[in-house]
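User: Assemble these into one structure.

Assistant: Restating your components, then the assembled model:
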Amino acid sequence: MKQKDQSFGLYIHIPYCQKQCHYCDFLTFINRDETIDKYIQYLLKEIKLYRHLDLTVDTIYFGGGTPSYIDSQYIQHILNEINLTFHIQDDCEISIEMNPESVSEEKLQDYLEAGMNRFTMGVQSFDDQVLRMMGRIHRRDTVFEKLQMMDEMEIHNKGIDLMFGNPKQNRAVLLNDIQTALTMNINHLSYYALMIKERTAFHRWVETGQFILLDDETERSMYHLIQDELSAAGFEQYEISNFAKPGYQSRHNLKYWKLQNFLGLGIGAAGNFDLVRTQNVGELEQYYHFIDQDKLPISEKEAMDIEEREKEYIMLHMRLVNGFSLSEFQERFGSDFLNKYESVIQKHLKYKTIEVVDGNLRFTPYGLDVGNQFYLDIL
Ligand SMILES: C[S@@+](CC[C@H](N)C(=O)[O-])C[C@H]1O[C@@H](n2cnc3c(N)ncnc32)[C@H](O)[C@@H]1O
Ligand code: SF4
């Protein structure tokens, strides 16, 4: 099972933040800034380990943690090393995740000089009370100030992340968040439903009853409000949580959902290479140990057979509003999807959860809400 597209994405993990947010379980360090310099030196060595492969890269994504928290010169060094190691396509998309409080004119200037061409900022809400409850350190005004700074620097390819479903975020707060976001000069919006993760403050507050989570119906109606308002403002939904102005979808994130190839660099980073999924080690000492021996710091390699890969392909693609192309499926897996899963397809066409449009199988808007049964039937 080879892919037509042999260009790679690169994901680079920067595991540092100023403060732990109350809902977040991403791999990140707080108050460990003395390790940043060494971590970056090892990240540069990890990149070098790929030199012999002669790979072409068409998307690069700095995620975290908070990439904008560390000195911007580190980001420049990493991009320099990437340029020496990989063949970078001319139109390569190079993105960075930033938090409002750590963005500065100097850092933005450095990012631009290094070739960064896509910027996302974690905003989460425009309500200061909600932000406090989430454990964020920025306030609503910080976001206005930083987005304006970016406008003045003519940085137009930018987007923000928002979340909904916080217990203190009622429908009026949500509507205000959406409407405020729509006054911003942005072309991409990720709108995530709050997930309660173990070992977070939010999880403890749910356990102790301090937090009452929204019921499903309220959460769904909030999701519909988001979909309706964003679509009316010209944002096209392309994935369950992602919306973009035409032409501004995240090419890098599309690689995850389209099961295309990407390498994960840095601790805890995941990668995908044809039939193999990889996961880097999650601890600094282990990470250093592997690299000191000139070994890729990969702790897990999950080789899948074609059948497993096919199921994964379906699950991930169905997150996309356009689903997947039946002819591409045939080309990639050598089987006719509609024949192979005939009884599942008949059932779900009847219940109007799926549809076939222009040769693509996809969820109907109703199906996007209740998609679980389709997944269970496919599995
Ligand atoms: C890798 S994270 C963090 C990037 C950046 N440090 C920030 O705080 O925005 C990217 C996005 O994931 C979302 N996110 C993190 N934890 C979440 C959770 N528990 N439930 C839903 N979305 C979450 C947030 O919207 C966040 O902006
Ligand atoms: S949400 Fe972002 S800033 Fe907050 S702890 Fe997670 S990675 Fe760090």
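Residues 322-378 form one domain.
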